[in-house]
Design a protein that fits this description.
The complex is a heterodimer of chains A (about 300) and B (about 250).
Chain A: E1 2-5, E2 10-13, H1 14-31, H2 36-46, H3 50-74, H4 80-107, H5 110-141, H6 154-157, E3 163-165, E4 170-172, H7 175-191, H8 196-206, H9 211-236, H10 242-263, H11 268-291, E5 298-302
Antiparallel strand pairs in A: 1-2, 3-4
Chain B: H1 2-15, E1 22-27, E2 31-34, E3 41-50, E4 62-68, E5 71-82, E6 85-98, E7 101-105, H2 109-112, H3 115-121, H4 138-154, E8 158-161, E9 165-168, E10 172-179, E11 186-196, E12 199-212, H5 214-225, H6 227-253
Helix pairs in contact in B: 5-6
The chains are: A mainly alpha (about 300), B alpha+beta (about 250).
């Protein structure tokens, strides 16, 4: 079923996009991630212009994260105080990100930079997750009780104006989460990801937040920052394709429900192991793509776009 | 086709007595609407040649049909391997490149026109005048222009049909120009050339408009004129769909 996308200015097969959203939704429901890190590369691979893929994927992440954020909030697993600081950082980050995005676009390096950041981030986060997940699985095999490491990073403790975040169980400077939020905000705008795969480890290992509020607070922040990213892109670059985002969401929300159900049949450490492998696979695929001789040596950028 | 003949009958007497031939042209549609189901189109361009005194030539005439979209400036970049990965290195700016260009001829352009005339009228992909802006060496410009033309050809935005014009009885001609879904919107122009003895003997033009229509147009205009409001609607849509799905999921669990 062909559908013409008004902003991307091309015809796509609507069923393929819905299916793509569904697969990503299934994985995101299963692993509790937004899935932007899969959507954006897949859309670009399909032939959607990168700027439009990034902006529309951010819109889709808003939709796929909101119901999760609300259910965590109901269970009291969202640290609103911490989340607000993260969102404030995220807003600054997304403004910075949209400046970076336009700068890279004018240099003509946006596609290479997006791919490189993906490879670096997904590669490092994926390896860390794999190491951690394998460690847990092996320790459980050996019958050991998992032990908790240090609270938060010494650099974080050195920052001034410390304050209490009782729900997260930490006493630290709000500058630390603000900076984390800003970094993730930049990524949201440049890469079209919610940034959960960066945020969750940063909250756990950098800020030392208690594990019970990490996922909920991360989703809470993602909903707001991706919404702000959508607004910024819509106002500045006009690159949000509402039809594309809608198609992705139709598949995504259905897939997510199925993913959540599927996740109940798998132990959490196995899930983390699979997620790590998935993240690494995307990183390797993109990394290989950067080194292979491209089918097209020339690219074209319109002066108006 | 019947009304075309009627048109011919009306017009033919007017051509009697004129010294040079004239071209009469029409097409299947002078406006192409891009709706939500748009997945490309085909423009049929047809017409007749009016010869002075109604005398038909002994040899078949050469006809070139060109469809040209609005021109714009663009930058072409060439990839190079740096430290093992492929990045954009050299670039060249062209000031005036049509967003769509199709040339259909009765036989290859080289056999119809000399290079100078082909370049004057920009008939044929290799004779497009794209105004490279920077002072680059001619061979560099050549490489980049070839790259640009091939890039566009692969996407169906530049079309070359060396035998794309059919001529019937040395009078009637027609050409079918394929238009891909990624065609840029704007004011297009159809140009028809009658070529005789390596020179353009007659020329006719007609406008074509390609534009988004209906729902597609509303969304596009909304997104560009009220960007922020459009963003708010996009966020609300995403939120509503997310909430709905969450609700449906919870209901099913009960």
């Amino acid at each position: 079923m062909d559908l013409y996308l008004p902003i991307a200015e091309m015809s796509v097969n609507a069923l393929v996009i819905v299916a793509l959203g569904g697969i990503v939704g299934f994985l995101s429901g299963m692993f509790g991630v937004g899935g932007g890190f899969l959507t954006t590369p897949l859309l670009i691979f399909y032939g959607i212009p990168p700027a439009i893929a990034v902006a529309s994927a951010a819109t889709q992440v808003t939709g796929s994260s909101i119901s999760g954020a609300i259910s965590y909030y109901r269970r009291g697993q969202v640290d609103v105080k911490m989340g607000t600081v993260l969102i404030a950082g995220g807003m600054l980050g997304s403004v910075l990100g949209s400046m970076v995005f336009r700068w890279l676009q004018s240099l003509g390096q946006i596609d290479v930079v997006i791919a490189l950041i993906y490879v670096l981030l997904l590669g490092s986060v994926g390896s860390l997750m794999l190491k951690e997940a394998l460690g847990t699985v092996l320790r459980q095999r050996a019958g050991q009780v998992p032990q908790r490491g240090r609270r938060h990073h010494p650099l974080v403790a050195a920052l001034p104006m410390r304050m209490r975040f009782p729900q997260s169980g930490v006493y630290l400077s709000p500058l630390a989460p603000f900076l984390v939020g800003a970094a993730v905000g930049v990524l949201t705008v440049v890469m079209g990801v919610g940034g959960g795969f960066i945020m969750v480890p940063a909250m756990l290992y950098l800020l030392g937040m208690s594990a019970s509020v990490v996922v909920g607070t991360s989703l809470f922040q993602i909903v707001f920052v991706t919404a702000v990213a959508t607004l910024l892109q819509a106002a500045n670059t006009h690159s949000v394709d509402i039809l594309l985002a809608g198609l992705l969401l139709v598949g995504g929300v259905v897939g997510a429900q199925m993913g959540v159900r599927a996740a109940q049949f798998l132990p959490p450490e196995r899930l983390r192991l699979f997620l790590a492998l998935l993240v690494l696979a995307v990183a390797v695929r993109l990394g290989v793509g950067l080194t292979l001789t491209p089918a097209e040596m020339f690219t074209i950028q319109l002066a108006t776009g | 086709m019947r009304w075309l003949l009627a048109l011919l009958l009306v017009l033919l007497p007017a051509g009697v007595g004129a010294r040079s031939p004239r071209l009469v042209t029409d097409m299947s549609q002078s406006r192409i609407d891009i709706s939500y189901r748009f997945s490309g189109a085909e423009l049929l361009i047809f017409g007749a040649i009016q010869y002075p005194g109604g005398r038909l030539p002994a040899r078949p005439p050469g006809i070139a049909v060109v469809l040209r979209g609005p021109a714009e400036a663009l930058t072409v970049r060439h990839k190079d391997r740096v430290a093992g990965i492929w990045v954009n290195r050299q670039s060249l700016r062209f000031e005036s490149v049509p967003g769509f260009y199709a040339a259909a001829t009765t036989s290859p352009v080289e056999s119809l026109l000399d290079e100078r005339n082909a370049a004057i009228y920009e008939i044929g992909l290799q004779y497009l005048q794209l105004s490279p802006a920077t002072a680059a060496a001619p061979e560099t410009v050549g490489i980049f222009q070839d790259g640009l033309v091939q890039h566009r050809q692969r996407r169906g935005l530049f079309v070359d049909q060396p035998y794309g014009v059919q001529v019937t009885d040395n009078i009637l001609y027609r050409a079918r120009i394929p238009i891909p879904s990624a065609v840029p919107v704007g004011n297009y122009q159809v140009e028809i050339y009658l070529i005789d003895g390596g020179k353009v003997a007659a020329r006719g033009t007609a406008p074509v408009i390609i534009d988004k229509s209906g729902f597609e147009r509303s969304i596009y205009v909304f997104a560009h004129e009220y960007g922020l409001l459009y963003g708010v609607v996009a966020v609300l849509l995403a939120v509503a769909m997310g909430l709905l799905a969450g609700l449906a999921g919870r209901l099913r669990e009960r």
